[in-house]
Amino acid sequence: MFITFEGPEGAGKTTILHKIAQRLQAYGEVLVTREPGGIEIAEKIREVILNPMHTAMNEHTEALLYAAARSQHYFERIIPALANEKIVICDRFIDSSLAYQGYARNLGIEQVAAINKFAIGDAMPDITILFDIEPAKGLARIAANEQREINRLDQETLAFHTKVREGYHKVAQMYTSRIIVINADATVDEVEQRVWQALEARMNKSE
Ligand code: TMP
C-alpha cells in the first residue's frame, strides 16, 4: 500500500502524517518518507531546489530537479519497501509537481506529467490524502511556526499559493478514485480524525 499526503504549506500535513503513520502500524510495517528527499541523493537535490538564495532557478530546472529527486527516491527507497510488503506513507509525491510546477508555474499539467513519466514510469500512489485550506490561513500558520525552515517556495506570493490550491483541485478532479480531499481548516486532532476515518474506509474497501 502506497499512500501519499499532499497539500499546500501550513495545512498540517506533516504533523498529521506522523500521527497517521503510528495508527497504520496496526496494519503492518510502515515506512515514512518524504519528497523531495528521503534518501541521500534526493536530499541533496532538495537543498539545491529549496535554497532561498537560488532565486535565479527557472521553472523548467525546478520541475526537472523535482522529477530527478523523485526517480531516485522511488526506485531506491519506495519500490524496495513495497516489495517487502511495507505500507509506504510519503509526504508529497507527483501531485505536488502537477499542482506547483504544472499549474501554478504554468508549465502545463500534461507537460509535467510527461517528464514524470520519464522519471518514474506509470507509478502512482494507491491512496492520496489532499489537505485543503485557504492559502492565507496556511501561510499564517507557517508564519506562526518559528521552528519551520523557510524554503524558496514559501517566499512566493499569496497569488502563487492560490494557484497551487486551484492546481490541486484540478488534479483531484483528474484522479477522483485515488485522491481524497480533506478540509484541513480545523484543529490538528479534528483533521487527524477526518483523515483516519477516510483512510480506514478506503483501505477496508480495497482489501
Ligand atoms: P515541504 O517538504 O516542506 O513541504 O517543502 C517542499 C516544497 O517543495 C513545498 O513548497 C512544495 C514544493 N514541491 C514542489 O513544488 N513540487 C514537488 O514536486 C514537490 C515534491 C514539492
TrEMBL record:
UniProt keyword Cell division present: no
Catalytic reaction annotation: dTMP + ATP = dTDP + ADP
A molecular function GO annotation: ATP binding
CDD domains: TMPK
Domain Thymidylate kinase-like: 5-194
Function field: Phosphorylation of dTMP to form dTDP in both de novo and salvage pathways of dTTP synthesis.
Keywords: ATP-binding, Kinase, Nucleotide biosynthesis, Nucleotide-binding, Transferase
Gene3D superfamilies (UniProt xref): P-loop containing nucleotide triphosphate hydrolases (3.40.50.300)
Gene Ontology BP annotations: dTDP biosynthetic process; dTTP biosynthetic process; dUDP biosynthetic process
Pfam annotation, one family: Thymidylate_kin
Binding sites annotated in the UniProt record for ATP: G7, P8, E9, G10, A11, G12, K13, T14
One GO CC annotation: cytosol
Cited PANTHER family: THYMIDYLATE KINASE, UMP-CMP KINASE 2, MITOCHONDRIAL
Protein name, per record: Thymidylate kinase
Highest rank taxon of the organism: Bacteria
EC number(s) stated in the UniProt entry for this protein: 2.7.4.9
Family named by the database record: Belongs to the thymidylate kinase family.
